[in-house]
Amino acid sequence: MQMKVSKKFIKTSPDKIRPIVALIKKMPFESALTQVKFLNKMAAKEILEILKSGLSAAKDKDIEMENLQILEFRCDEGPRLKRRRIIHKGRATTINKRMSHLTLILSDEKNNKSEIPNPTQNKNRV
């Protein structure tokens, strides 16, 4: 059984979140949770929240934490807040404050990658 958990509009740049996501991708859930707890990064707090949310979704479906596996963990870019910074001679430069969207897909069975359909594969392609 698969569960999808997402968190949107995180006020952290995707460039700061993606290395942590790459670190815990394809890990068993329990070891990923332990790994993120002891990371010394600000973005680890946001990832820990989504992992705990996934754990609570699994408990709602009566799935034990030992059986959970991270199937997919994705960090996408959200909208940008555009700000201006005034510099010399009346000029202004733009500052983009980037946001992130996190998506976590958990499974209780191992090696269950075939259940997720790949949208890029098209059978009717010439």
TrEMBL record:
SUPFAM superfamilies: Ribosomal protein L22
Keyword field contains Hydrolase: no
Pfam families: Ribosomal_L22 (PF00237)
GO molecular function ontology, one term from the record: rRNA binding
GO CC terms: large ribosomal subunit
Gene Ontology biological-process entries: translation
Record key words, sorted: Ribonucleoprotein, Ribosomal protein, RNA-binding, rRNA-binding
InterPro entries given in the database record: Ribosomal_uL22 (IPR001063), Ribosomal_uL22_bac/org-type (IPR047867), Ribosomal_uL22_sf (IPR036394)
CDD domains membership: Ribosomal_L22 (cd00336)
Function: This protein binds specifically to 23S rRNA; its binding is stimulated by other ribosomal proteins, e.g., L4, L17, and L20. It is important during the early stages of 50S assembly. It makes multiple contacts with different domains of the 23S rRNA in the assembled 50S subunit and ribosome.
Binding partners and assembly: Part of the 50S ribosomal subunit.
Family from the record: Belongs to the universal ribosomal protein uL22 family.
Name under which the protein is recorded: 50S ribosomal protein L22
Organism: Candidatus Berkelbacteria bacterium RIFCSPHIGHO2_12_FULL_36_9
